Amino acid sequence: SNASITPADCDTIETDAGVALDLVNRHRRDGYVFGLFRVVDAYKQHIGNSSVLYLTLDVLETDCSVLSGRRWESCEYSNVFGQCKIVTYTSQWIKKTQQLYGFNCTVSPVPPDVIECEDCPVKVEVLEVTEQHKDIAAKALEKYNSESNHTSHFNVDKVEKILK
């Protein structure tokens, strides 16, 4: 039929997957930018003059906050692993640009003993964020506000991650 689903072209899919992941990162309001690790699955469906792309991507969290607006290529990878299922839509009429139709990403938290400091024998532990941690962050920022000569003051919006 006209709307049959076929495996996507391997030569172009890496680029398309990167663009799709940028769209997802721009859409997210908290967490860290996901970087492309590999394309697991990719299918394309042609419907009239448009096409729909179904992607399953293995991703790695980077050290850039999604609020930084940075593209994943410019960020350092962490070792938090995840997977994103993404559906994008490309109309032949609108400059052939991909548009985000929907996505679902899940990440697997890293067990405490997995993260190791590269140049030293210290184990790093990822802690659960508590109210106490939020207070510590707020106090640290308060101190920064009082000592800096910025005209704006900063507030803690969210504590994303705590390493011990």
From TrEMBL:
Q: Which domain of life is it from?
A: Eukaryota
Compartments in which it is found = Secreted
Pfam family, any one: Cystatin
Q: Which residue intervals define the domain Cystatin in the entry?
A: 19-91
Which GO molecular function annotation, any one, does this entry have? cysteine-type endopeptidase inhibitor activity
Any idea which UniProt keywords this protein has? Blood coagulation, Copper, Disulfide bond, Fibrinolysis, Glycoprotein, Hemostasis, Heparin-binding, Repeat, Secreted, Signal, Zinc
Cross-referenced Gene3D superfamilies: 3.10.450.10
Would you kindly state one Gene Ontology biological process term found in this protein's UniProt entry? Answer: blood coagulation
| GO cellular component assignments | blood microparticle
Q: Carries keyword Glycoprotein?
A: yes
- Assign the protein's first listed, main location to one coarse class: secreted
Protein name (Swiss-Prot/TrEMBL): Histidine-rich glycoprotein
Q: What taxonomic lineage is listed for the species of origin?
A: Eukaryota, Metazoa, Chordata, Craniata, Vertebrata
